[in-house]
Fold this protein.
Amino acid sequence: MPIVQFTRFKTDKVEETVQIIRQAKKIFEKHGAEFLRLSRFHTGHWAGELLVTTRYANWEVYGKVQEAVSKDPEFAQLQADGMKIAELQGRNIAVSIDL
């Protein structure tokens, strides 16, 4: 069952944050994530916030990617840079249901 992680960020430096997330996409996909996508809320309670969505084939792959990313020095630097200009608002994990 695919695993999807949703992470929301609030920032007033959207373009800079997009550039950081663009680089993070390469790292996550290199380590095995099926994809990393970026969206921006235009309505509702989270209007203006950014949503990063990553998808993994299953829990095993999710764990392997998380471990690899946690040890990746390039990602550590990106994360440090990102936290200077964006604030983490929330993170959720969803497990797909086969229909």
Notes: The beta strands are 3-11, 35-40, 50-56, 86-95.
